[in-house]
Amino acid sequence: MIFSIAWKNVWRNRMRSLIVMIAVTIGMIGGIFSSAVFKGMSDQRVREAIKYETSHIQIHHPQFMENQELQYTLNSSGEMADRIEHMAEVQAVSRRMEIPVMIKSTVTGTGVRLMGIDPEKEREVTAIYDAIYDSTDLVKQYGFKDPERISRFLEDSCGSYFGKQTRSHQIVIGEELAEQLKVDVKSKVVVNLQNTEGNLTGGVFRVAGIYRITNSAFENSVAFVKKDALAELTGLSQGAAHELAIRLNDDNELIPLMNKLKAQYPELSVMSWKDIQPELGMITEWLDVMLYFVMVIILLALGFGIVNTMLMVVMERVKELGMLMAIGMNRIRVFTMIMLETIFLSLTGGVIGMVLAALLVDYFGKTGINLKAFAQGFEAMGYNPMLYPEIGTAFYFSITGLIILTAIVASVYPAIKALKMNPAEALRIEL
Question: E strand or H helix at 93, and its extent?
């Protein structure tokens, strides 16, 4: 019965209750939607880092990450890759060589990390191939009438992912690096490096394709060549590898597989994407905390407004509350009634706000928020300027709990104010 009385009391002054509910609704929409935008941006960055840059797990010689010397290769990397690839959690494994080199065009030069890969195997682990405007794919996509001729024409401007065999070694570079070197598809670049005997050597590579992702720093610092071409230059055997890149079937299997690999290969360095890019892991964990921190601040601000409203309610109903206590309603029931009124008032606005916020998140989660006008700034930090808000269901349940907690705390002072009334004196007050 007390629930019914409290609910009816909320609507005794409709205008005042609606103003509080609207304030809570707007607060919830703003807080949840902005949280979803930041959460979506962070998760999207992690997915793209795994997809294009690091894969889920990498295994190295223990000293390789400290000093990327040629000799720090993995022993029996082929057998190790085969064993890991047969694990149920693993989708694919790619063996890579990774060497710091100087790359030069006819205009300028710069230092990059040169990755020696098996292109077909690398396709199963990372998606750099998908970031190149492949002429063959474009011809298929647009259904051109003379595919072969148009494909050859497009290839001059689009490039490909180690497609056709050429007399020159092929290299795939990022768009930022191509702009820095002033080169285009089919341009030649010279790669200088130190071979296994300590001598400086070099080779000429033709740009086969230019990839574009949303991390301009990665584009500017990483280039890909075929593994056998790099082995030929360095003097390493073609079976040598500095790195095993492992792609998982499911993100949730990361920690169990990491523990399994560390137990199986204690002498090697087994690193997850969080270890390889610690700043990204730290931002992700920090953001999870900040989302709740922002919501607490919003609810705290709304809480002061709710306290003020409930104080007005109590002061306007002094005579009524005095009457209730005079006819036998005990103080606990009075306290509960005021607390329930506060919870109903807050929760109604909160639920409406969460429903509207969920609809907004769902809509923009599908269509995206286009901030390509600021693409340069976003990509310099490694983020995609096309934002897709997303937030888990658990977040809504947590916010519901926070709203109820805020309402309970906000009801305490007005309720205490009501309990301090003397029923006899309250009945004599003329309002």
Answer: strand 90-104
Residues in contact with 362: Cβ distance below 8 Å, sequence separation at least 6, in sequence order: none
Quote the strand ranges of 118-274, DSSP E.
169-174, 188-194, 200-211, 222-226, 243-248, 269-272
pLDDT in tens, 406-426: 999 998 888 888 887 776 676
Written as six digits, the tokens of 84 are 């890991």
Name every residue whose Cβ is closer than 8 Å to that of residue 26 and which is 6 or more positions away in sequence.
353
Is-contact 56 247, C-beta < 8 A? yes
**pLDDT tens track for 15-69:** 888 998 999 999 999 999 999 999 999 889 999 899 998 899 999 998 888 888 8
Length of the chain: 431
| Angstrom distance (rounded) from CA 49 to CA 55 | 7
SS3 track for 382-403: CCCCEECCCCCHHHHHHHHHHH
Give the end-to-end CA distance of the chain in Å, rounded to a whole number: 28
CA 404 to chain centroid, in Å, comes to 29
Residues 6+ apart with CB under 8 A from 314: 321, 338, 414, 415, 417, 418
Coil, helix or strand at residue 196: coil
For 314-424, list the strands marked E by DSSP. 369-370, 386-387
In angstroms, the CA 167 to CA 185 distance is 15
Cβ–Cβ under 8 Å, residues 294 and 34? yes
Report how far apart, in Å, the C-alpha atoms of 116 and of each of 72, 93, 97, 99, 272 are.
15, 14, 5, 8, 21
Place of tokens 């919003």: 298
DSSP conformation class of 56: S
Report the distance separating Cα 387 and Cα 38, nearest Å.
9
Contact 208, 170 (CB under 8 A): yes
Q: What is the DSSP letter of 52?
A: I
